[in-house]
# Entry
Amino acid sequence: MRIPILVAATAIVLAACGTTETPQSGQSGENAGGPVSVTDSRGKAVELKSAAKRVVALEWGEAEIVASLGVMPVGVADTAGYKTWDAAVALDASVKDVGKRGEPSVDAIVALNPDVVVMAAERDSTVVPQLEKYVPVVVTKSSDAARNFDRLREDVKMIAQAMGKTAEADKLLSEMDTKLAEGKKTLEAKAGTPFFMADGYLEGSTVSIRPFGKGSLVSDTAEALGLKNAWTGQVDPQWALGQTDVEGLTALTDPKTVLFYSASEDDVFTTGLAQNPVWQRLPFVASKQVHKFEPGTWTFGGPKSVVRIADQFVKALA
# Structure
C-alpha cells in the first residue's frame, strides 16, 4: 500500500497569475490584481506579484485544498496515487504529473510556469532552495499532532490567501464545522464510544499495523463527533501514528470498541489477518464491529476529506 512519507517535507506548488477578483479581507494587496504577501509556516513573508491561479501541488492534501477552493492545479505529484487515495475532490484530466511526492521534478514544475511553490515542512528541504531560484516558495505545516484542526485551518487560509480565495476558505471551513456539529448531534447516543483507527501493510509475511493515535486528523475528526480514541500506545508528535502488530491489538479489551481502517489498495486486514486466530478473538472482530473506509478516503487531507471521514463514522455508528 502507499504509506505517506513521514521524514521528508511535504511539497506543494502554487502558481499565481493575475486576477480580476477583489482581494478578500485579510489578504495583502488591496487592489484587484495587486501583489499578495503570505506569511508561511516558517514565519517567512512570501511576496507574490498577484493572487495565484496556476497551481502545482506536490502533496495530495494540499492538492485537495487547492481544488476545494475552486482552482484546479495545473500539476500534482503522483496524480495516479492521488486518484487512488483522495477521492474528496477529483482532478481534471489536464492536470500534469510532476514526479513523486518525495522526489518531485524541479524541471517539470518550472516548465508549468508556476508563480508560487507551497511545500510542507516535512518534505526534503533541499527542494526549497532549488525552486526558490525560479518561483516564491510557501511552506505549509501539513500535520501537527498537538493541534491538527487549528493547523488545518491555518494551512487552508494560507493557501487561500495566496490564491485570493479567502471567502471560499471561510465557506469551506464553515461547511466542515457544520458537518462535524451535525454528526455529533446524530451520534449523541453513542457519545464516548471507543474506536480504533488504523491502516496496515505487509512486511514479508508479517502484517504491520499503524494505529492513528490521539492527535491524528482522523482521531480529531472522530473526537469532534463525540467518540473516544482507544489507542494509548506511543505515536509520533507530527502525525500521531504508531506501530504495532496483531498481538499488540490484544490491549484493546473494551467490548464496545469499534475498528475503522483504511485500505485503498491492498487490504491486509482481509487478506493477511482473516485466518489469524489472534485477530479472530479480538472483541471488535468477534462482534463484527469492523468498518473499512471507502476507497479514496485520504486520512491526511483537507476539509473535504474530514467531511468524508466524518460521514463514514456517522454512517457506521448511527
In short: The radius of gyration is 20 Å.
